[in-house]
Amino acid sequence: MNASPVSPESATGPPPGCPAHAGTVPLSGPRFHTDPAGLYREMRLEHGPVVPVELPGEVPAWLVIGYREMHQVTSDPVLFPRDSGLWNLWPDIPADWPLRPMIGQRQPSIYYTVGAEHQRHVAMVGSALEGVDPFELRRTAEQLADALIDAFCSNGEAELVNDYAKLLPVLVLARIFGFPDAEGPGLARALNALADGGADALEAHQYFGARMQELVAAKRARPGADVASRMLAHPEPFTDEEYALDLMALTAAGHLPTVDWIGNSLRLMLTDDRFAASLSGGRHSVAEAMNEVLWEDTPTQILAGRWAARDTQLGGRHIRSGDLLLLGLAGANSDPQVHQGPSATGFTGGNSAHFSFSHGEFRCPFAAQEIAEVIARTGIEVLLDRLPDTDLAVPARTLARRPSPFLRGMSSLPVRFTPTPAVGGHR
C-alpha cells in the first residue's frame, strides 16, 4: 500500500534545541546490537531517563528509557498521543526514508487513531480476536510447526530463524485471519523486510498492503470463520481501507515480535545452563525462559512512537510540541530503580510488570497477547519435543542480531541434532 507523505499545515521544521543538536546517541552500529544492556546503562548515566537519539538518516528523536517516564508517557494519550500528524519534522523526511513505514503516518487504523475513534477500532479488533478458539489455535500452531520441522528434521542440522521462527507466526496468523496457506511465506518476507528497514522496506510495505486489500475483498465475497470475516461483520461501519489497515497492524504486530520471542527464547535455552533441563527431556522452563526474554531481551526494544501535543517537561528534558518520542521498552525494563535482572532475582517468575506489550491506551490487546504466547510457546515446545538434543552448531559468541533499530532478534540460530524422520503432520 502506497503511503503518501503527511505534511500538515501546522507542522514546522526542526525546532531550535532539537535533540539533533545536543550530542545525540545513534540508534545504529554494532554495539547497539551486541551490547544494548551496557549501552542503556551508559545512556542512563550520561543523559538520564530521556535520551536525545538519532535514527538512521540523521533523524532526531527522544528515547524514553526510564520506567517512571515510560509509565507517564504511555498513560497520558492527551499530552503524548500516537498522532504522527503532529511530527514537526515531516517536511524534512525524505519520501524514500526506509523507516517511514515503521514510524507511520496519520491513517485511519488502530495504530494511528486517537480518542473515541481509536476506541471504536479497539472494540472491533478486540471482538474479532476474542473469537479465536485457543485450543484450535494451538492445534493449528502444532500442525504448522510439525510441517516446518519435517522439512529439516532428517538433515541433523537447521537454521532456526529463517527455517522456522520467521515462518511459523505468520503462517499461523495467515490461517486464523483468513489467508490461504500459500500466502504465508510472501507475507513473512515482506514483514521481515519492513522490520529491518533496508532498501526494500517501502516495496515490502506496498506488497503487504496489497495483500490485505485483497483479503478484505475476498472476505466480503465469501465470509468464513476467521478474524477478517468477524471484523467485517462488526456492527460499527468501517471503510475497506480501515479494515485493510487494521489487518496490516494486527499481522505485523502479531508476527514480528513473535518471531523474535521464539528466537530469543531458544537462544536463551541453548546458551544458558539454567535452562538446560528443558533440552534433556523436560520442558518445565519454557514459560520461564519466555518471560525472562520479555524482561531482559524483549523482542520489541523500541516502539515508535508518541508525539508531544504541546511543549512539556519529561525526565528533566524540555520536549517541544511535535517532537517524536520513541518508547524504549528494553531500556525501561532494565531501569535499575525497578528491576535488577535475572542474576539478582533468578527467574522472573510470573512478574509481568514489564513494558514488552507497551502500556496504557495503546497497549497490545490482551487477546492478541494470548495469541502471540500460544504461537510462541507451541513453536518452542514442538521443536523441543521433536528434536530434544538440539544444540548450537556455532559458538554462542558468534551469534548475530538482526539490524533493526526497533526489533531485537536473531539474524540466525544454527543448530545440530540427531536426525529424525518426518511425521507428516501426525505425531
What does this structure look like?
The structure is a single chain. With 427 residues, the chain is α+β, with helices and mostly antiparallel strands. It is built from 16 helices and ten strands. It has helices spanning 30-34, 36-47, 67-74, 100-103, 115-130, 134-150, 161-165, 168-177, 184-196, 201-221, 227-232, 240-271, 286-296, 329-333, 342-345, 366-386; strands at residues 25-26, 50-55, 59-64, 157-159, 303-307, 312-314, 317-319, 324-327, 391-392, 414-416. The chain has a five-stranded mixed beta sheet. It has a three-stranded antiparallel beta sheet with strand order 4-10-9. It has a two-stranded antiparallel ribbon with strand order 6-7. The radius of gyration is 21 Å and the shape is globular. The protein starts with 24 loop residues before the first strand and ends in an 11-residue tail after the last strand.
Q: Judging from the principal axes of the Cα atoms, what is the shape?
A: globular
Residues in β-strands, percent: 5-15%
**What is the N-to-C succession of helices and strands?**
EHHEEHHHHEHHHHHHHEEEEHHHEE
Work out the helix count. 16
Q: Would you count the extended β strands for me? A: 10
Radius of gyration: 21 Å
Main sheet: strand order: 1-2-3-8-5
Helix content, binned percent:
40-55%
Q: In terms of structural class, how would the helical and strand content be classed?
A: alpha+beta
Cα separation of the termini = 41 Å
Low-confidence stretches: 1-21, 343-349
Report mean pLDDT, rounded to a whole number: 85
The largest pleated sheet is described as: 5 strands, mixed
